[in-house]
């Protein structure tokens, strides 16, 4: 009995010592049962069972969230950017979503090759903004960073926002997308033309647009900037207010600085300059060519040169302005794409079997729909025509610059017509293109006939329908 009693006493003592030792273990000390080594050895089967339970639970939850698909059309589903992007690297926009506890997404405004633009409400500043969401891909991010740098540079030199360039408020990264926050503007000039049923706006309103755009190009041409927009077109010119004539240039996604040209294939085709079509070096003058095309289109309602491809585009230009100067074609890498060189050293347009009829540009003049209205006298059209021909000079070295364009007589006259776009856009005459003595020699004989009041093109309705389908509209605006 004595031996049994002593054994019990020893057991009690051991248990007491173990209790004391457990009290000395710090709270942060890991339970040996949860150690990875134990889970992958002694408790291996138990670990496998737990993994299976978690896996099948998640699989069942996903199956409940995704609607069933027909087995014949079922495709492998891929997840992009943790499910935030689609297969085109665009962010999947959800209306009502709030970003950074600040921006509440309202709606999608537009899409383009760069990404998307959404309308959002900034709860910090209590204002509506437009957010440009760049695609989640390195190439687009790199180009957007160039755009960002140029926008910040322009903002730095336009602190008073008086040069008709869209204002960048700030930028941020959100779920691997670079986001640029801009002021929210109204609809673009192409939308304005569409609201006129492509009949164009008054000459006075065209003048207001022209003066602002020349001022913007003069700003971009300052030595500190030397920025080439590279994609000036009606879609990239937005009204600040739908009932006023104030405008701003947007979308510097293709822009570059002089001496830092990146791309050779630039500018939308209708507004592409001859030097770009010919593969020649380009500078800020390409934007002036685009502006000349835009101004004619704003007044007539129709594109001045609406080529279906580059060859057709050049042919349409030649029909109006004649063959480019020999010194340009001799130095142009792509001259033989459009022209043949004769034995006497002169150039002639290549014969194109696909071209079946002569191009007829938009025509008209003082006898048009606005005949007798203030600001539409023959002298007004002569001034307009002269400015346009100087903007459409083949040679970029002699093409009119923004500074001298602003000194042109077309801007000297002030009119009594208001700036309300809703009342200024209902009707307009086509442009009178009769020539001044200083520019007649540069225009072909067929172009002269077309420009001297032969009547408007009779296919406007067909063109308008085609154009709406052909163009990919991208806007940073909202009409609401």
TrEMBL record:
Give positions of region: Disordered. 353-376, 414-480
Sorted alphabetically, the keyword list is: ATP-binding, Kinase, Nucleotide-binding, Nucleus, Phosphoprotein, Serine/threonine-protein kinase, Transferase, Tyrosine-protein kinase
User: Which stretches make up the Protein kinase domain?
Assistant: 103-411
Q: Which Pfam family, just one, is annotated for this protein?
A: Pkinase
Listed GO CC annotations: nucleus
Q: Where is the composition biased (Low complexity)?
A: 417-428, 436-446
PROSITE patterns in the record = PROTEIN_KINASE_ATP, PROTEIN_KINASE_DOM, PROTEIN_KINASE_ST
Q: What is its main location?
A: nucleus
Family statement drawn from the similarity comment of this UniProt entry = Belongs to the protein kinase superfamily. CMGC Ser/Thr protein kinase family. MNB/DYRK subfamily.
Protein name per the record: dual-specificity kinase
Originating organism: Salarias fasciatus
Q: Which gene encodes it?
A: dyrk1b
């Amino acid at each position: 009995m004595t031996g049994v009693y002593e054994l019990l006493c020893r057991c009690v003592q051991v248990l007491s010592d173990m209790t004391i030792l457990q009290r000395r273990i710090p709270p942060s000390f890991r339970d040996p049962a949860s150690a990875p080594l134990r889970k992958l050895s002694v408790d291996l089967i138990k670990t496998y069972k737990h993994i299976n339970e978690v896996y099948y639970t998640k699989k069942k939850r996903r199956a409940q969230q995704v609607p069933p698909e027909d087995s014949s059309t079922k495709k492998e589903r891929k997840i992009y950017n943790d499910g935030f992007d689609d297969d085109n690297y665009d962010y999947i926009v959800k209306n009502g979503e709030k970003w950074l506890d600040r921006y509440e997404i309202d709606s999608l405004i537009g899409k383009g090759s760069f990404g998307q633009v959404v309308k959002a409400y900034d709860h910090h500043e209590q204002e509506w903004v437009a957010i440009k969401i760049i695609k989640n891909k390195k190439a687009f991010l790199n180009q957007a960073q160039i755009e960002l740098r140029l926008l910040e540079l322009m903002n730095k030199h336009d602190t008073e926002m008086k040069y008709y360039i869209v204002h960048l408020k700030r930028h941020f990264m959100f779920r691997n997308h670079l986001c640029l926050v801009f002021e929210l503007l109204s609809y673009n000039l192409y939308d304005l033309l569409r609201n006129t049923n492509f009949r164009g706006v008054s000459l006075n309103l065209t003048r207001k647009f022209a003066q602002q755009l020349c001022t913007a190009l003069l700003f971009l041409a300052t030595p500190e900037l030397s920025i080439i927009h590279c994609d000036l077109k009606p879609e990239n010119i937005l009204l600040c207010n739908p009932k006023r004539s104030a405008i701003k240039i947007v979308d510097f996604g293709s822009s570059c600085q002089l001496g830092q040209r990146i791309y050779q294939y630039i500018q939308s085709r209708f507004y592409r300059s001859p030097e770009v079509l010919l593969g020649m070096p380009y500078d800020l003058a390409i934007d002036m060519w685009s502006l000349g095309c835009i101004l004619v289109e704003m007044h007539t309602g129709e594109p001045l040169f609406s080529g279906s491809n580059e060859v057709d585009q050049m042919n349409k230009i030649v029909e109006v302005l004649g063959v480019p100067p020999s010194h340009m074609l001799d130095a142009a890498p792509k001259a033989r794409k459009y022209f043949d060189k004769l034995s006497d050293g002169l150039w002639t347009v290549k014969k194109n079997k696909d071209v079946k009829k002569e191009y007829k540009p938009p025509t008209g003049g003082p006898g048009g729909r606005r005949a007798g209205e203030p600001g539409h006298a023959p002298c007004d059209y002569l001034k307009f025509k002269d400015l346009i021909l100087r903007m459409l000079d083949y040679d970029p070295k002699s093409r009119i610059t923004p500074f001298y364009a602003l000194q042109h007589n077309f801007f000297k006259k002030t009119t009594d017509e208001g700036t309300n776009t809703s009342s200024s856009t209902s009707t307009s005459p086509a442009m009178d293109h009769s020539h001044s003595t200083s520019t007649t020699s540069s225009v072909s004989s067929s172009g002269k006939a077309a420009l001297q009041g032969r009547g408007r093109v009779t296919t406007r309705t067909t063109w308008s329908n085609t154009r709406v389908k052909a163009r990919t509209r991208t806007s940073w605006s909202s009409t609401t």
